[in-house]
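Handoff note, outgoing to incoming analyst
You'll be picking up this chain. Sequence as last confirmed:
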Amino acid sequence: MQLALGPAVVRLLLASSLLGLVAPAQGQLLENAKNFSRALALAPVPVDTSIHGTVDASIPPLLANLKREIRNWIAEELKAHPAQVDPGKLTEKWKAELREAGFLGAAKPGKNPFGRVLGLGVASVPNESGMLRVVISYDSFCSPDDSVLFFEHRADAGWRLLINFDNTDLEHQWGDRALVYAGISPRDGKGQFYAFIVRTRSYCPAGASSWNSINYQALRPTVSPETPKVVLAGEHGYREEGDLRVELTKEAATLEFWHRSTTNSMGRVFVLKYAIEDDTARRIEPVAVDAEGFVEEWLASPWSMAVKWSEGTNQRALLDWHQRLGSGKPFDADMMADYPFWQSCSPDGKLSQISFPKNHDGDGPKEGDVFFLVREIGERRFRIVNVATKSAAECGPAKAYVSHGEHLLPEWMNRRKDRIVEHER
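Most recent structure output, in case you need it:
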């Protein structure tokens, strides 16, 4: 029998926490966390498992307070450590203490998941000897619910929390809460850096699709670790079984991953590269690894961006085609299908033509289909030269486009192979 947690109990716990009546902050933070964990264990499990379902109203404030107490406990623990620490030993020490306190444990399908920690991991930050990354993986109805903490050591202040990145949607059980990547960029000429975080959707028990989504943020630290400056925030579809490659430089952040494509039924590699300067971010080239992917990006982007990828001598006509087929409009099955063909149009291979025959019968495109003439102007940088319903005279025979697994980033940057935090079994 599961007991419902009354609003009065929730209010009492929250008020006593704010007034410091649950336990003194110093040395008693885990005891405070236990109180919230016990309360969460009594909360009703969601009945509606669909994407529209919500958790009981008692859960969000209790969960937020549980995370705060554990976060403060870690911050207090770190204060006793010197600048040079062993991340592996810290991980095992803190896991043992959480296990002894009754927090750490394996997921229990069918049981109330709230209030339990599935795993914890401490890692050094590459090229930053005075930084640590701590990830705490909380259980949830759709687990995991991962929190990311970046700590920095200063000679005059010791270890201090630099950035706290938490899930803020505590009402809906579906959401992008499972951490895939969390890193710190190299410092620029001003000594500034940014944190880059990628998360993917936490699936409910019934979820089994490999077509998923990711969201990503670039954050600058501020005077408050709870409110970092959001320089960049975005989301995109993502195939969970594919690579997720990430590169951070002092000037730019690059994401590369596989997802379904409106112009290619087999899907393709997507590239998102952003220049990061001070507190601004803007998308820059390359935007695709090949001409076929570039055509889709040209169509999907607003004209204010697509015009920069269009050759100037023909921009009026290209604008007309973009308004007809692109600018985020739904896929026009009367004009194009999702099986691309490729034609070579110059001896040096820099000029090519991409088409998507609307009536694909294996024979390739015909007059009346839409043909995109594309020029490669640099390494994986392209321009639309012309769009027409007739093949350009200089182009050779059409061949079914076949992806050869091209990538912008090297394989060692595939972050899907990185184990962010080990969960209890």
